[in-house]
Structure prediction request, 226 residues.
Amino acid sequence: MPLGWENWTLPPTSAEYPGAEPFVPERATLPRLRGAVDDCRGCDLFRDATQGVMGDGPVPARLMLIGEQPGDKEDLAGLPFVGPAGRLLDRALVEAGIDPAGTFRTNVVKHFRHVVKGGKRIHRSPVRWQVAACEPWLLAELELVRPEIVIILGSTAGQAVYGPTFRVGATRGRALEWPAEQMGAGPSAAVATAHPSSVLRSREREKDRAALVADLVVARELLARR
Prediction:
């Protein structure tokens, strides 16, 4: 577990939720993970979500992208990055010289956290204990996919891997050492960048989209040197 999260393994007011570990199947395959995630009661997010959303892509894959959580479209489809942010990410990957079909994409939280306003489901970022509770699913995916390079999309994903002090702005666009002590043996390096949903919300969308592409180019060049 990332440093500084030791006291967030359970919700502050309840011991009802044990975290995801009891629900993660042994000898996992991607189909087995997808079948098991809907039974997960490790935190409270399953209550309002349509379904759990595991990662998608080739197994193994040299490049793995990790975002925050499924959104409305992903919750309905059962697949990650199929909404507007995913389409922007696809275009950015292509512009950076990366084949989107060759990447494995996932999120640190597997259920959609939201609030209903005006009949619409509005995204809410997961809180720390929910991210910590969901970590065993991510660890199972990392072991299965065995990526050489990981791309961290946004602050929630970065904090899930590196701890709560992680900031995208201070780390983006350069090779980061993988925190094997907390996350287990894994890729040779990671690259942090903004989540594509933040680019969609930006008032300087073209500037921020170009910065996203530049960060993805760093990941591609790291992979090319492997």
About this structure: The radius of gyration is 16 Å. The first helix runs from residue 30 to 37.
